Amino acid sequence: AAAQVPAFRGVATKNASTMSESSSREKYDRQLRLWGERGQSALEHAHVCALGATVTICETLKNLVLPGIGSFTVVDHRKVSPADVGGNFFVSEEWVGQPLCRAVVEHLSELNETVSGAYIEEDPAVLVASGSDFLAPFDVVLVSQLPESVLLALDDMCQSRGIPLFYTRTLGLIGSLRCSLGNHWVLEAKPENDTEDLRIASPIPGVVDLAAAIDLDAMDDYAHAHVPWLLVLVKLLQAWKDAHQGRVPATRDEKDGFRAYVRDAARSPEEENFIEAAKNAFRAYAAVPIPSGIASIFAHPQCEALQSGTADVWVVARALREFVHAEGGGFLPVSGKLPDMSADTASFVSLQRVYHQKAEEDVNAVAARVGVLSSGIGQSPHAVPADLVRIMCKNAAYLSFTAYRSIRQELEDSSKVQEFSFFSSMPEQYAHIWYFVLRAVDRFYSERRVYPGAGDDRVGPDLQILRNYTNAVLGELGVAEMVSVTDEYLEEVCRYGGCELHTIASFMGGITAQEVIKSLTRQYTPMNNTFVYNGISSVSATFEA
């Protein structure tokens, strides 16, 4: 990591030890079950920049170092103070008077010997003012407690370089996170309720052949009770269509009738496969539309106008669109996934083999189209990685693309803020009210370079100043008539004096690290785009600002 930033002053690193592949798998076994080897590889090759060694950022880094982030660099110009020792687990008393960034890097690096840590003893604001070149080595930027003008400049730089920015902070019992991810793809959403595309209403040829080979009447009871419910439905649907002029059940009475037809085909009420078939009877007549997420991708201008330099994901998206209208016959590629079902091993394996084979055929068809499209924009037909094509085909139904609003857009266009402002009238159920309080605190800090209430006997005087800033912010956002920020909220903020309570910082560090991992792995769906946590009443809110 250090070799990538030779121009930085005061850089020191802790060399990472090497691990064998088997040792790595054993060490990270639990998380590999969440995001797989592809996700782990993305983490291990990532370099995180942390601007400011705040407690919240240190807790975020802890939750990135433990799962094996490749490397991290902490930028801060401050020295360790006794207050730091009391509030930050990653500094200790012997470090008082020494560089804070070096102290936290030393302590964080002890958590995982395979992670490389570095520090830059410099004011983050000064580094940002030097230009965007310092961002070149990094894949993610974490930031906390920066003046608004510096934050805007940093976000502009990250937007131009396509680097995700996470603005996370804790103020007493209140925490917030702002994700500025630019144009973000989710390639593996891993939804909790994954409805497999089994094509029962329009079965793939191999499944038709398997169903046709079944003679339910001639089977003995054991074999009858172990036919996969999917084949039961395909078989009985074909019989229904033969008796109804080739039509699938359409009316409510017909659908109820088909479900009863499936139940009546069972030889006993205990046949699990027929119970499963009846529960899934709707799949025999339900339409399988193209999901809205991938449909919006197909309609996106970047999917239409491919050119030299177009990102690989858009080339694959275009190939998927062409596949749907050609080889797919209106369907996305088969994922190859099957749900669990009551069946004997031989029957299930035969069915699984058919779906896997079809999924492979679809991947090859899309890959061929990717090659043609790549050649058409002056690239090698093999320019797009085969692994990317396979991932996008397998997860085509859940692909998503989001153009996140930048922080500058948030500050200059309050339309989104006005949409959620009404929630602020219910502070016991929602945390939205604190968004407006924190916006006022940001204004206070940006203009005075100190947090309200920081210093002796400043709570009273700063309360009125913060009230003025709050009124100004609400007026600028156009929500003064809808949002009422009473003095009790402002007094609470002034009481904190800018301090970070470790319990809240730890919670926010976990939330932030989770979103960073989603961003790096392109798995699961990151929040869009603001999270606020009220530790007083333990309520939170996620919304687009």
- The pLDDT mean sits at 91
Contiguous helical run count: 23
Strand percentage lies at: 5-15%
Shape by Cα distribution: elongated
Instruction: Decide which structural class fits the backbone.
Output: alpha/beta
In total, the number of strands is 11
Strand order of the largest sheet: 1-4-3-2-5-6-7-10-11
Low-pLDDT ranges: 1-7, 9-17
Largest sheet: 9 strands, mixed
Distance between the termini: 34 Å
In short:
The chain is α/β, with parallel strands linked by helices and 545 residues long.
What does this structure look like?
The chain is built from 23 helices and eleven strands. The chain is an alpha/beta fold and 545 residues long. The strands form two sheets. Strands 1-4-3-2-5-6-7-10-11 form a nine-stranded mixed sheet, sandwiched between helices. Strands 8-9 form a two-stranded antiparallel sheet. Strand 6 and strand 7 form a beta hairpin. Helix 10 packs across helix 12, helix 15 crosses helix 16 and helix 21 crosses helix 22. It starts with 11 loop residues before the first strand and ends with a strand. The relative contact order is 0.13. The N terminus is likely disordered.
